[in-house]
Fold this protein.
Amino acid sequence: MINKIPQAAVPRLSLYYRVLVESRGKDYVSSDELSKLTNFTAAQVRRDLTYFGQFGTPGKGYEVEALKKAILSILGTDKNWDVVLAGVGNLGTALLSYKGFEKQGFKIICAFDNDLRRVGKTLEGIKIQDISELGNTVKERNISIGIVATPGEGAQEVINILIKSGVKAILNFAPIRPQVPPSVGLLNIDLSIELERLAYFLTKSKS
Amino acid sequence: MINKIPQAAVPRLSLYYRVLVESRGKDYVSSDELSKLTNFTAAQVRRDLTYFGQFGTPGKGYEVEALKKAILSILGTDKNWDVVLAGVGNLGTALLSYKGFEKQGFKIICAFDNDLRRVGKTLEGIKIQDISELGNTVKERNISIGIVATPGEGAQEVINILIKSGVKAILNFAPIRPQVPPSVGLLNIDLSIELERLAYFLTKSKS
DNA sequence: AAATGTTAGTTAAATGTTTCACAAATACTA
DNA sequence: TAGTATTTGTGAAACATTTAACTAACATTT
């Protein structure tokens, strides 16, 4: 392919989709309107969309429903994805309870923990299993997305099990940078690092 | 300034600090070793560090303790930061309970919610206050960092209050892209968007 | 049907970031 | 002390992304 798609364009697509959902009632929307709704420039909106195809009509704009469908299909959110959760502490529980995921086709279908006080309990309709069953369950149920919300210690081990069992994409909240083979997608969300970025911003803007 | 610092260098600095902490016992560490520990290239390690100053000794490397202190000072994590939390649902509770923040100098000192069932309760030693008191409390206590963990509706309003009351940096978990003046630092963590990025990765790698 | 205005798609320039390669500085060894 | 091995810091090149300017297509108005 000649046109490489910038990494950063993908989350922007998600945002275009959101504002399209909110602009129910309109038949067409222009890059200029999308620009105002997302705070990206109109040029970037057009550029981003053409990375993935041609969706618009000159003089008119983009057909809302068609563009919505197209973005869903590009992102893969027109399918349903089964998700496994490893680590059901405070954060894990919060993720399990978050209603937003299911709307977008992501369903946490099983959850694991190594704390025996939690194992066996049911949260949001999901029975927490012992971490020792992680590998087999993931294999049996053929799950391809994993969320890791364990402490840093042991996170790499959990991730190794996930990968060995066929998981192809991981959202990692543990404060480590796990090793994964290139075939596996990895996104790290590291709360401490984000706060440190803010602290840097504050320190810098004072000087 | 001639050398503008790439945005992306800042979170890398956080990671250098982490591996330095873990390499206790060593007096000196080379860019090559830091490279292996962080999976960034050695050239990037050196480049990143020189954005902020000259910390190394040719032929020897970087003195661990000195570099640790320098990074702390650059990031601003050598100071203590008071943090306000808006929204004490599942995610907010998880953040309130997360022990990692305090170690890095971030302390959530007050929390607010608009749900009367939560207001008045005490979590992790912090009494949840009514959202109507948010502005005054932030002003009185002179807080400069805010974490927003409310639903999307109302998040912009909460953020407006934070900014009006003197908050200068915001970590936003609500699924919106808030408007903030350029003088205010903003980082968005949007869980749905992260999952959609993974879905895109999976969709793409199958084709 | 012609003229005008709007808007997507494309090409080129500008900006920002990372990588490469090497000189200069220091440490080590004999 | 001279010579060799390390390792930093950095100019320049390579790469990636965003912004801006332009072109062509379509819609609307008269």
Notes: Chain B is about 45% helix and 20% strand. Residues 81-193 of chain B form a domain with the Rossmann fold fold (CATH 3.40.50.720). Residues 30-32, 42, 46-47, 49-50, 54-62 of chain B lie near DNA strand D (CB under 10 Å from a C1').
